[in-house]
């Protein structure tokens, strides 16, 4: 009996040691965060991803490691979103527009001419309306941390300068994969084709599509000037990017680890917006130097485009819910000092 007890004790000690060893090893194995994004490393998205990665590593004392993987190497936005929901990938940054199929409220940001400037965008996105939209992601298995700036979108194509609505007729235009973008550009008379961003360059190169719309920064960093001759300044919508975490993975983090990610996310947001705006300020001259032909819409034609696009507002309001729509309009009115 005594002997039995002694060997049992020995066995327990060995087991205890083994489990302490395992816990020890786990504590010192850094948490690996696969962070995917769609643009290349030299883009504003790539630069900010690097800032985020460094901030996480520093604040966690090396216990959390971000492996930033760009150029859609982990798949286009929609594929990464599913990987996050399933827990196969930890984080990503991507367009809010491609999230609409998962969280209908994201369609709010696709409202044409919603923001007049970046001050309005920052205030609404970082305020209660922006937070309400982020919160909606949770029930779908995603945690939204912050919005980055993709920017005001402008048209490019290989056919002709777009100076008025009618110039869009018959132009095969790639749009982001969502019904608001599809409806908006159909309304404007273009032949709108939804396509993932990762397929866009080669689609333009092979003339599968004639054009696309994106902020100056992206037209530059993705070298669209190599396959697009005309750039028409439309500023038709402001696109945010959103920093997403897999909720499945997030729920297993300690409060301290969550804070590291939240703080780094805010830091990366502030860096990203500043960097993006600086680059956008120079980009038009750079694109001209690369050989693009740039035209602005006259105020009258710009107004016609705006008018025409108000048609899609009703369906966006229905999609996101009337309360959210009204809250947004009220916040904008307050920002514009209209009361
Ligand atoms: C990059 C995309 C891109 C977006 C688009 O993955 O798809 O046109 O503007 O920034 O999210």
TrEMBL record:
The record's section on InterPro entries has: DctP_fam (IPR018389), TRAP_DctP (IPR004682), TRAP_DctP_sf (IPR038404)
* CDD domains in the cross-refs: PBP2_TRAP_YiaO_like
- Record keywords, A-Z: Signal
- According to the record, the signal peptide region is 1-25
Q: Which Pfam families match?
A: DctP (PF03480)
Protein name, as recorded: TRAP transporter substrate-binding protein
């Amino acid at each position: 009996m005594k002997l039995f007890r002694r060997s049992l004790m020995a066995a327990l000690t060995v087991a205890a040691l083994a489990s302490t060893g395992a816990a020890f090893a786990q504590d010192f194995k850094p948490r690996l965060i696969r962070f995917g994004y769609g643009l290349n490393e030299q883009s504003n998205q790539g630069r900010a991803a690097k800032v985020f990665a460094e901030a996480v590593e520093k604040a966690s004392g090396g216990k959390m490691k971000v492996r930033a993987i760009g150029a859609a190497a982990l798949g286009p936005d929609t594929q990464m979103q599913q990987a996050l929901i399933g827990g196969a990938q930890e984080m990503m940054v991507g367009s809010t527009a491609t999230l609409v199929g998962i969280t209908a409220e994201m369609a709010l940001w696709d409202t044409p001419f919603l923001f007049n400037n970046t001050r309005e965008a920052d205030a609404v996105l970082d305020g209660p309306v922006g937070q309400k939209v982020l919160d909606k992601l949770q029930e779908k298995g995603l945690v939204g941390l912050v919005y980055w700036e993709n920017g005001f979108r402008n048209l490019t194509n290989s056919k002709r300068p777009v100076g008025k609505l009618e110039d869009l007729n018959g132009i095969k235009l790639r749009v982001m994969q969502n019904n608001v973008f599809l409806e908006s550009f159909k309304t404007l008379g273009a032949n709108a084709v939804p396509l993932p961003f990762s397929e866009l360059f080669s689609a333009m190169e092979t003339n599968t599509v004639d054009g696309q719309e994106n902020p100056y920064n992206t037209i530059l960093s993705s070298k669209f000037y190599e396959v697009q001759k005309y750039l028409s300044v439309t500023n038709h919508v402001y696109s945010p990017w959103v920093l997403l975490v897999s909720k499945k993975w997030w729920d297993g983090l300690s409060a301290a680890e969550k804070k590291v990610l939240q703080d780094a996310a805010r830091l990366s947001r502030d860096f990203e917006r500043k960097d993006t705006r600086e680059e956008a300020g120079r980009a038009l001259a750079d694109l001209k130097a690369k050989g693009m032909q740039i035209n602005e819409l006259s105020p009258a034609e710009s107004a016609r485009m705006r008018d025409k696009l108000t048609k899609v507002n009703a369906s966006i309001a229905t999609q996101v819910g009337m309360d959210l729509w009204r809250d947004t309009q009220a916040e904008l009115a307050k920002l514009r000092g209209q009361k």
